[in-house]
Amino acid sequence: MIRHLRSPDLFGPIDRLPALGTRMGERTLEVLNPSTGEVLAELPDMGVEETCAAIDKAYVAQPGWAGFTARERSDVLWRWHQLIIDHADDLAAILTAEMGKPLAEAKSEISHAAAYLQWYAEEANRVYGETVSAPSADRRMLVIKQPIGVVGTITPWNFPASMVARKISPALAAGCTIVLKPAEQTPLVAGAMFALAHQAGFPEGVVNLIYASEADAVGRELCTNPKVRKISFTGSTEIGRLLMRQCSAQIKKVSLELGGNAPFIVFDDADIDAAVDGAIQAKYRNAGQTCVSANRLYVQSGVHDEFVEKFVERARQLQVGDGFARGVDIGPLIDKKALAKIESHIADAVAKGGAIRCGGKRIGTNGTFFQPTVLTGVTSEMTVAREETFGPLAPIIRFKDADQVVRDANETIYGLAAYFYASNLKRVWRVAESLEYGMVGVNTGRMSSEAAPFGGIKQSGIGREGSRHGLEDYLEMKYLCMGGI
Ligand code: NAP
Asked: Does residue 386 sit in helix, strand or coil?
């Protein structure tokens, strides 16, 4: 049962949301509120059989959807965008109930999701080909772009609305059809968005939703079913590797948005107040459960103590609690495993000489709340500096040498996001160019936008989402050569 909904029946009975394009399974999937442990809803728990049925529907629907004009596809995306805006408050309430994030953050996520739909409703009209100067007079050479086909998509729990929109709106704009499996912990907001997609007028079989607790079986089917031409996945690097292996037999295309280990560097010439602001956002937004969370904070010696003092002061002021409560900045962690991970990172750091400057403990026994925590005296040998924590823990590393810190920042298998604060123009350019990351925030702690290409290098992923590049990832290039002209 989800309280706080203005129109509880809007999406159909919320505790048994139908998955569009598939039939109800016999087994059920329980969705819990991480703030209270309360059961919010029971959904049909689907498996391989339902996944195959959804793939078949998407396969049958795809040529028809690709045959729509770009303007017609754009119109349906616009209508979906408008429905999401109209129902933003309810979508945000569902999101907070199943994921825990503060309601204000949930509203901002719904706006972000809607912004992707708007962007790709516009971008659907901007698919261009090329003509090429032929090397002989009797030939004409050109390139056209066509949709890849059926796309299998898998999304995580940390941004359960915006990841769905960011992934499927470019696919739909390009003329692909999709089968989506949202995370087991947060399927409700995806279900509500799909109910609105249905109202927007996508033809039968274009968008298909699978609720499943057996992610491995559903994932394997999506990767190995020959009717699926591409897999688009957001989640951990470990599962990304597995899916890539499963796709290799058919040389299936993949887009992978994976884990990160973002460095956040504050140089001596930075505006310290701005850097503290940026670090608070980049670290504690969504309780630190974002792939672009600042995972390691490097602060240069000359400003280290001032930064730590101000940062700790701000971290102490953050209010932790139920996402529906007024004034809450940080909600619960997604589950008990997440609590255990953050505790193990703290224990390892303290055993190796790190100091807890604030926080460090669970809050209460109900739910999965954790204090915003700051560690100082952190070194690169500690687990917290090497692995993604995915929690409200800020490890601060003091550094002296500006060249060395860039080498340390790059010393990771990940390459998603990095941040730094500096004012010297030459340093800004050189550091921005030297950081081996797909995205670099310069004097800002927040950079995600539908207008920009989001994605990582190294083991943080393949492909980009957002911007015109996001659309290209769902298009194939076909070269036409006309002879005898
Ligand atoms: P995860 O365990 O990899 O799960 C992500 C999705 O994959 C979920 O839907 C999950 O389903 C599914 N999954 C799990 N095992 C699978 C399998 N064997 N085959 C197919 N699908 C499978 O990641 P998470 O813990 O939910 O999300 C956190 C991770 O995502 C972090 O590493 C974070 O950095 C990354 N992330 C990256 C981005 C980005 O844009 N680069 C954005 C957000 C998050 P179940 O829920 O049923 O297990």
From this structure: helix
Atom nearest to 213 CA in ligand 1: 47
Angle in degrees, 0-180, between the axes of helices 188-200 and 162-174, rounded to the nearest 10: 30
| Tens digits of pLDDT across the chain (485 residues) | 676 676 666 666 555 555 544 445 478 999 999 999 999 998 999 999 999 999 999 999 999 999 999 999 999 999 999 999 999 999 999 999 999 999 999 999 999 999 999 999 999 999 999 999 999 999 999 999 999 999 999 999 999 999 999 999 999 999 999 999 999 999 999 999 999 999 999 999 999 999 999 999 999 999 999 999 999 999 999 999 999 999 999 999 999 999 999 999 999 999 999 999 999 999 999 999 999 999 999 999 999 999 999 999 999 999 999 999 999 999 999 999 999 999 999 999 999 999 999 999 999 987 899 999 999 999 999 999 999 999 999 999 999 999 999 999 999 999 999 999 999 999 999 999 999 999 999 999 999 999 999 999 999 999 999 999 999 999 999 999 999 99
- Who lines ligand 1 at CB under 6 A? 154-159, 181, 183-185, 215-216, 219, 234-236, 239, 242-243, 257-260, 291, 388, 416, 456, 461
Q: Strand, helix or coil at 140?
A: strand
Ligand 1 centroid to 464 CA: how many Å? Answer: 17
Nearest CA to ligand 1 atom 46: 183
Query: Does the model's pTM come out above 0.85?
Result: yes
Ordered domains of the chain (ranges, CATH): 14-258+460-481 (3.40.605.10), 262-449 (3.40.309.10)
Distance, CA of 102 to CA of 465 (rounded, Å): 25
What is the DSSP-derived secondary structure letter of residue 5?
A: -
Q: How many CB atoms lie within 10 A of CB 30?
A: 12
Report the nearest atom of ligand 1 relative to the CA of 154.
9
Annotated catalytic residues are: 257
Whether the Cβ atoms of residue 190 and residue 161 lie closer than 8 Å to each other = yes
Residue among 45, 46, 239 whose CB has most ligand 1 atoms within 8 A, to mutate:
239
Residue whose Cα lies nearest atom 27 of ligand 1: it is: 235
Angle at 160 between CA 159 and CA 161, to 5 degrees: 95
